[in-house]
Description:
The protein is an all-alpha fold. The chain is built from three helices and no strands. Helices cover 57% and strands 0% of the residues.
Amino acid sequence: MASWANCCAPRGCTRRTSPPGAGSVMQLAGLTPKKRGRKKAGVDVRDRKIVELQRENARLTARAERAEALVELQRKAAAFLGTPLESDKS
Protein backbone atom coordinates (compact mmCIF):
# COMPACT_ATOMS: atom_id res chain seq x y z
CA MET A 1 0.00 0.00 0.00
CA ALA A 2 1.40 3.41 -0.94
CA SER A 3 2.35 5.74 1.88
CA TRP A 4 0.19 8.51 0.47
CA ALA A 5 -3.01 6.46 0.21
CA ASN A 6 -5.75 6.65 2.81
CA CYS A 7 -3.94 5.71 5.95
CA CYS A 8 -6.96 4.49 7.79
CA ALA A 9 -9.72 4.30 5.19
CA PRO A 10 -11.75 1.68 7.04
CA ARG A 11 -12.13 4.14 9.93
CA GLY A 12 -13.15 6.99 7.61
CA CYS A 13 -9.95 9.00 7.94
CA THR A 14 -9.00 10.82 4.74
CA ARG A 15 -5.81 12.43 5.94
CA ARG A 16 -3.88 11.99 2.68
CA THR A 17 -5.97 11.12 -0.35
CA SER A 18 -3.59 12.37 -3.06
CA PRO A 19 0.11 11.89 -3.75
CA PRO A 20 2.60 14.38 -2.34
CA GLY A 21 2.86 17.55 -4.42
CA ALA A 22 -0.64 17.31 -5.86
CA GLY A 23 -1.89 19.92 -3.43
CA SER A 24 0.74 22.41 -4.55
CA VAL A 25 -0.54 22.15 -8.13
CA MET A 26 -4.04 22.95 -6.95
CA GLN A 27 -2.76 25.91 -4.94
CA LEU A 28 -0.93 27.31 -7.97
CA ALA A 29 -4.06 27.08 -10.09
CA GLY A 30 -5.72 29.55 -7.76
CA LEU A 31 -2.90 32.05 -8.21
CA THR A 32 -3.19 32.40 -11.98
CA PRO A 33 -4.76 35.69 -13.12
CA LYS A 34 -8.30 35.48 -14.45
CA LYS A 35 -9.63 37.43 -17.40
CA ARG A 36 -11.69 40.36 -16.32
CA GLY A 37 -14.95 41.51 -17.84
CA ARG A 38 -17.79 39.69 -19.44
CA LYS A 39 -17.33 36.20 -20.74
CA LYS A 40 -17.62 35.80 -24.48
CA ALA A 41 -20.91 34.28 -25.45
CA GLY A 42 -20.72 31.24 -27.68
CA VAL A 43 -21.75 31.58 -31.30
CA ASP A 44 -25.46 30.90 -31.58
CA VAL A 45 -26.56 28.26 -34.09
CA ARG A 46 -29.03 30.72 -35.62
CA ASP A 47 -26.30 33.34 -36.09
CA ARG A 48 -24.09 30.77 -37.79
CA LYS A 49 -26.98 29.79 -40.09
CA ILE A 50 -27.64 33.46 -40.95
CA VAL A 51 -24.01 33.98 -41.94
CA GLU A 52 -24.07 30.79 -44.02
CA LEU A 53 -27.24 31.89 -45.83
CA GLN A 54 -25.84 35.39 -46.46
CA ARG A 55 -22.73 33.84 -48.06
CA GLU A 56 -24.86 31.57 -50.22
CA ASN A 57 -27.08 34.51 -51.23
CA ALA A 58 -24.04 36.57 -52.26
CA ARG A 59 -22.63 33.62 -54.23
CA LEU A 60 -25.90 33.01 -56.06
CA THR A 61 -26.38 36.72 -56.77
CA ALA A 62 -22.93 36.91 -58.35
CA ARG A 63 -23.69 33.78 -60.38
CA ALA A 64 -26.98 35.24 -61.63
CA GLU A 65 -25.24 38.48 -62.64
CA ARG A 66 -22.62 36.52 -64.60
CA ALA A 67 -25.36 34.51 -66.32
CA GLU A 68 -27.23 37.69 -67.29
CA ALA A 69 -24.03 39.22 -68.66
CA LEU A 70 -23.39 36.05 -70.70
CA VAL A 71 -26.90 36.12 -72.15
CA GLU A 72 -26.47 39.79 -73.09
CA LEU A 73 -23.13 38.97 -74.73
CA GLN A 74 -24.76 36.17 -76.71
CA ARG A 75 -27.52 38.54 -77.86
CA LYS A 76 -24.97 41.09 -79.04
CA ALA A 77 -22.94 38.40 -80.81
CA ALA A 78 -26.07 37.05 -82.51
CA ALA A 79 -27.09 40.54 -83.63
CA PHE A 80 -23.59 41.21 -84.94
CA LEU A 81 -23.50 37.94 -86.89
CA GLY A 82 -27.07 38.31 -88.13
CA THR A 83 -28.30 35.05 -86.60
CA PRO A 84 -31.40 35.50 -84.47
CA LEU A 85 -31.58 33.78 -81.11
CA GLU A 86 -34.39 31.31 -80.49
CA SER A 87 -35.89 33.66 -77.90
CA ASP A 88 -36.01 36.42 -80.56
CA LYS A 89 -37.96 34.16 -83.02
CA SER A 90 -41.00 33.86 -80.80
